[in-house]
Amino acid sequence: MSDAERKDTPEQAEFRAHCKDWLENNHPGRPDVRLPQGALELSDPDALAYLQSWQKSAYDAGMIGCDYPKEFGGGGRENCQAIANQEMQRAKTPYLPNVIGMGMAAPTIFFHAQDDVKAEVLPKLLSGEHIWCQGFSEPGAGSDLANQQTFAERDGDNWVINGHKVWTSLAHFAEWMILLCRTNKDDKYNGLSYFVVPIRENLDKGITVRPLIKMTGETGFNEVLFDSVVVDDRYRLDEVGAGWKVAMTTLAHERGAGPLVTPASGGMPLEEDESAQTSSVYALIELARQQERHGKSAADDPLIRDELMQIMIRQQAFNQNLRRAGIPALNDHPMRIPLQFKLVATEMVQDLQNIAYEIEGAASTLYVNDENSPASGRWKLAYMNSFGMTIAAGANEVQRNILGERVLGMPKSK
Amino acid sequence: MSEQPKNFGFGEDETMLRDSASKFFADNCSPDKIHAQVAHNPDIHRPIECIWDKNLWQQVVELGWTAVCVPESAGGVGMPLVAAAAIAEEVGKAAFPSPLLSTYYATFVLNACGTDAANKALTDIVTGTPTTLAITNEKGSWSSSDTDVSIKDGKLNGTAWFVQDAKKCDRFIVSAKGEQGIGLYQVEANAAGVEITADGIIDLTRDQAHIEFNNVEAVALAAEGDGDKALDEAMPAILTIISADMVGAGEWLLQTTVEYAKTRIQFDHPLGFFQAVKHPLVNVMLDIDRAKSLVYNAACSIDCGFDDAELNARMAKSQASEMAVFASSRAVQYHGGIGFTWECYIHLFFKRQMHNQVIYGDGKHQRTILADMVIGQAA
């Protein structure tokens, strides 16, 4: 029995047993299609269909949205999502496709939408039937998120929206969008409002979704144009002008520092080959054993060995930081560790994936379209995609400002 | 890993002990006081001195801190290693000149010896006998099988090098090579045939010496062939405690430099306004937090008796050593011209960190061993 299990309440223990039991008999098995590294890279409808079917069955079994109230499509439990996540990870399940919906939209809707909207949108969000996307970034509002130019103008019980969103992951599959936009041009922060927008039903009513192609050659994110799109006022979250405050709820959860635990499964290897698990240092060690540098195993090269140990130490430190963050006696500031998670995790993964280039040597030139590429080219693809993570959700330079200002108390930078 | 207590075993008793240590150092050991004491002579050719406050040591003993890691059977308190790690963190934060950490290292080795003589030595530690390890050879090898001291017919001959806090300690635990292998021996500092030569070291908050043994009568703590095993068994705890000291010193360097960055104005702004200063200071914080979490994890896995204790301890020492270098270099750099002077307190911690990071193996040394453990020996 693990320590986590020993601490379970009777309700949690019963729920955990249910999860274990269900997962034993209902693992979806490996897909026939090639899955990308993560949900944000999804571009193949067949891959999406496989993952949506997995999310739906896990939802129906009560493992997604456990801690949300039943009237909003949740399980009506307390502190059970983390247990479901642990068990899904242990069972090496596929990842979930509706990551923006569950990780950002759902908690924001739960804390800020009116009840009829929660009841309308949350069930199909949690089941994964409705994919969600996030309309925050704009051509002129990346790290400077409050510089929103997309404008919503009041028209009776409706709002009329015009503008341009970019870097919108999953918009090509999305039914819904969480939208941050401007409702007052005279006040940068208090002139913002927050909506949920049914974008799919507006595709012929002013919404245009255009795919953007990433440096990897994959699609998966988009630009979304709003041309006089009409949105019902009941889809506004919180007060007019409270958009920045609402967005902070979204961002806190996106960075793993919010009060609600995001449903998450995973652990299923993307390739049969162990050396292609691009977030694991042990896979990297396996890759090093397979590759040669200067006529001997890369795993015997002292410089490579040192790099491998450095990244292993960082991974262990990250895991132990997660553990220490929950112990007030070992933290001088409650947000000191939580505000590091996004920054530290994304840079660690990027550096891990970068080492694969050195290990592969000449073969690191080979991409996913070459059958001789080690580990099916996954490491190079992953390394390029890692920049999405160090840039998104507030570029890591912004994260360093936040830590320097909010935790260390240094003056605000411009 | 999942079998460990989630809170590292750091409960109310450990918190109270840590908080009382923090208060003790705030009351008795401010940086200006330490500086006036140990940095009174900047002369580069100054005579070698061992400066420390014996009254404070007596108070430390009375507070029971030397007894923390001594088992109850030997008259100690028998607290988990996380408690000693928390004290060591406060010791580092205060750059406290004392034989406390050396005495902890000796405690772990004596615990590992498990002989009656070792048990007796542990009771002496409880009552305040400062004790240190004399286990390093002239080349500075950190391997338990390397020593320049030999044992024959109960007599020690040879020299032990890089002995920490030697002039503050009354007793040495000496590793020596005999016909059957490495044994461990207890020697009093004032015993006949012991010659202690202080080293001229950079760190002002410590002392170090090499010790010559000329036909010295020795009490065996671990028999020939058992000594290196006892040292290996104790090493994870030793690495954890020295790493905790570096975490504490790192935190002092960070907080002190952040305060300076808030108040020092250049180009019409406090230094901390500029991201060229702000972001590296955040990086220092990230490095400290990594080291701190690894230290408590290592301490906890040692307390639980897990097989990965050595792995976790070497990870902690590697990270703490890298952090110690980085935190101290950034502290000097961002204090600018003043940070480069003798009168600024930064150098006390800079020098302590540079000393700590190398003792019992720097980051690269730890990672070389880790790679052998995790990847396997290179062909």
Which helices and strands occur, and which strands form pairs?
The complex is a heterodimer of chains A (414) and B (379).
Chain A: H1 3-6, H2 10-26, H3 45-60, H4 81-90, H5 99-112, H6 115-127, E1 132-135, E2 151-155, E3 158-169, E4 176-182, E5 192-198, E6 207-212, E7 221-232, E8 236-237, H7 243-254, H8 281-290, E9 292-293, E10 296-297, H9 302-324, H10 341-360, H11 378-391, H12 396-407
Parallel strand pairs in A: 1-4
Antiparallel strand pairs in A: 2-3, 3-7, 4-5, 5-8, 6-7, 9-10
Helix pairs in contact in A: 2-4, 5-6, 5-7, 8-9, 8-10, 9-10, 10-11
Chain B: H1 12-28, H2 31-38, H3 54-62, H4 81-94, H5 100-113, H6 116-126, E1 131-134, E2 149-152, E3 155-164, E4 171-178, E5 181-188, E6 194-198, E7 208-217, E8 219-222, H7 227-263, E9 265-266, E10 269-270, H8 275-303, H9 309-334, H10 336-339, H11 346-358, H12 363-374
Helix pairs in contact in B: 1-4, 4-7, 5-6, 5-7, 7-8, 7-9, 7-11, 8-9, 9-11, 9-12
Q: What is the count of helical runs of chain A? A: 12
**What is the CA-based Rg of chain A, rounded?**
22 Å
CATH topology of the largest domain in chain B: Butyryl-CoA Dehydrogenase, subunit A, domain 3
Helix-strand pattern of chain B: HHHHHHEEEEEEEEHEEHHHHH
Q: Looking across the biggest beta sheet of chain A, what order are the strands in?
A: 1-4-5-8
Describe the biggest sheet of chain B? 4 strands, mixed
Can you count the beta strands of chain B? Answer: 10
Helicity level of chain B: 40-55%
Classify the beta-strand content of chain B into a percent band: 15-25%
Q: What are the segments of chain A in which pLDDT stays under 50 over at least 5 consecutive residues?
A: none
Q: What is the helix content of chain A?
A: 25-40%
